[in-house]
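Fill in residues.
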């Protein structure tokens, strides 16, 4: 899941950015409403964490413009304690959830997991898929009942494939999910992660679709959902 973080408070923003990094979400952080709108319109994010009081453009205006333009990206609003009017307006404008400041990072991560489950159409953090059990909250993976240690990027890649199991994802789409807007990515880095996932899990877990990209093991599609 690729996240756009919109927060102008440096301290809170850097805490949130660290928490997202820790939870293995690729993300981009912007501090201004107009930049947020431009980033959301230009890039393929799965979720926007949106502060309301922003320089450039108010968060509610950003949300309103996105929805008016047909952008359906999930939005989680961060709002001040006394802003119940804003929360109602935000939900009416099409926000998916909101958190009142100050909040615990644990709660934010739990809300993100819930939005991710909703996106993936699963009811629990634990997804059983063939020989695999994948825990979206603890980022752990079991193969045939045995824990398998995946590196952060390997888990991010596997999670991206799980989000849309029947789709073939290009190398570029996988790079965006795994690296966000980090520059200087080795041209074969996705192939290297795929190689390691096949080795640590089993060879057929990821199918190469020549000239197009990668796809989750077709035998797993529709299972566990
Ligand atoms: Ca603010």
């Amino acid at each position: 899941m690729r996240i756009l973080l919109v927060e102008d408070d440096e301290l809170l923003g850097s805490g949130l950015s660290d928490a997202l990094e820790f939870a293995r979400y690729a993300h981009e952080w912007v501090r201004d409403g107009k930049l947020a709108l431009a980033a959301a319109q230009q890039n393929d994010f799965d979720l926007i964490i949106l502060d309301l009081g922003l320089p450039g453009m108010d968060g509610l205006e950003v949300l309103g413009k996105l929805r008016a333009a047909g952008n359906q990206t999930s939005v989680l609003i961060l709002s001040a304690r006394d802003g119940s009017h804003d929360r109602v307006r935000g939900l009416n404008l099409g926000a998916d959830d909101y958190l009142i400041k100050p909040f615990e990072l644990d709660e934010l991560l739990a809300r993100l997991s819930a939005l991710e489950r909703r996106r993936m159409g699963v009811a629990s953090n634990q997804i059983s898929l063939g020989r695999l059990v994948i825990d979206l909250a603890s980022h752990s993976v079991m193969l045939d009942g045995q824990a398998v240690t995946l590196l952060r990027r390997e888990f991010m890649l596997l999670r991206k494939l799980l989000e849309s199991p029947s789709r073939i994802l290009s190398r570029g789409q996988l790079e965006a999910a795994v690296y966000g807007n980090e520059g200087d990515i080795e041209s074969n880095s996705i192939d290297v992660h795929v190689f390691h996932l096949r080795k640590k899990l089993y060879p057929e877990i990821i199918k190469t679709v020549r000239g197009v990209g990668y796809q989750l093991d077709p035998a797993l599609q529709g299972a566990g959902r």
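Helices lie at 10-22, 33-42, 59-68, 84-92, 105-120, 152-163, 171-179, 189-200.
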